[in-house]
């Protein structure tokens, strides 16, 4: 499955999606990589590792983080994705949902991964930018899995409750994930509670995997530390240089702008 998924990823279309990709930003993202420094194979390995730690008959829900707004229609920028969802597939879009369904011990089926996203609509793209859409999400973020419109999530989740055997456990942190998808997820959560499915804490599963850094992650962390250190030094030098001049010292806004620039 991994080979087949990787070939689909590499053969993705040249259409722009909602975040940097190799075919649009080759100077940032290498061929075969989903995000900078992390390959499609590594994301697939993360999903396999998580599924292997989940008990049989588990339904795991990973909603995207909500869009925070500073006023009625002005969002804060940049958008910060849910760390768990990003770790498992690399998608940076809001209004999305990643789902894993593990079969019961009596079922020989493999864990089933599903990704629900908003379609790419040209009219909305004029204001908010392009989204990956169904085809783009299938090629880039969940090759070999199931990708559906977010509007179909309620029906698909209802099917997953009994597919491969009844759900015995629910992995979902409603408090940590202020996703804005509460109305969509409430029915399936209520159905799991009605069936007395146990609640699993994501911290015991996903975050345990996230603490073990791969060589690619170590390289990214080292690069980020180097860039941050250089930015701090440049900002301190600017403060010292300007302070020696007769003109007024730089304001906090000027120093902050220089730091972000660096």
> What is the CA–CA distance across the termini?
42 Å
Individual helix count: 10
- Total strands: the figure is 8
Strand order of the largest sheet: 6-5-4-3-7-8
Strand coverage percent? 5-15%
Gross morphology is: elongated
Q: pLDDT below 50 for ≥5 consecutive residues: which ranges? A: 1-13
Kindly report the average pLDDT value.
Answer: 87
Order of helix and strand elements from N to C terminus: HEEHEHEEHHEHEHEHHH
Give a brief description.
With 262 residues, the chain is of the alpha/beta class.
Question: Would you mind describing this structure in some detail?
Answer:
- With 262 residues, the chain is an alpha/beta fold.
- It is 42% helix and 12% strand.
- The chain is built from ten helices and eight strands.
- The strands form two sheets. It has a six-stranded mixed sheet with strand order 6-5-4-3-7-8, with helices on both faces. Strands 1-2 form a two-stranded antiparallel sheet.
- A hairpin with a 2-residue loop joins strand 1 and strand 2.
- Helix 6 runs parallel beside helix 7.
- It is elongated, with a radius of gyration of 21 Å.
- The protein starts with a helix and ends with a helix.
């Amino acid at each position: 499955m991994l080979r087949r998924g990787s070939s689909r990823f590499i053969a993705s279309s040249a259409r722009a999606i909602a975040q940097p990709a190799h075919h649009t930003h080759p100077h940032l993202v290498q061929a075969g990589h989903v995000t900078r420094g992390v390959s499609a194979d590594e994301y697939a390995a993360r999903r396999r590792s998580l599924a292997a730690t989940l008990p049989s008959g588990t339904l795991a829900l990973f909603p995207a983080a909500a869009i925070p707004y500073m006023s009625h229609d002005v969002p804060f920028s940049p958008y910060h994705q849910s760390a768990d969802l990003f770790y498992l597939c690399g998608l940076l879009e809001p209004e999305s949902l990643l789902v894993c369904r593990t079969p019961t011990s009596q079922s020989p089926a493999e864990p089933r991964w599903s990704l629900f996203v908003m379609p790419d609509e040209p009219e909305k793209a004029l204001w908010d930018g392009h989204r990956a859409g169904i085809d783009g999400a299938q090629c880039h973020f969940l090759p070999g899995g199931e990708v559906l419109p977010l509007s179909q999530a309620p029906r698909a989740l209802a099917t997953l409750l009994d597919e491969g055997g009844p759900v015995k456990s629910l992995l979902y942190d409603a408090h940590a994930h202020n996703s804005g998808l509460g109305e969509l997820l409430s029915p399936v959560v209520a159905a799991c509670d009605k069936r007395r499915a146990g609640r699993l804490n994501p911290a015991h599963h996903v975050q345990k995997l996230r603490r073990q850094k791969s060589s690619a992650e170590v390289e990214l962390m080292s690069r980020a530390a180097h860039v941050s250190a250089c930015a701090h030094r440049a900002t301190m030098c600017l403060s010292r240089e300007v302070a020696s001049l007769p003109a007024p010292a730089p304001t906090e806004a000027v120093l902050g702008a220089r730091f972000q620039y660096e």
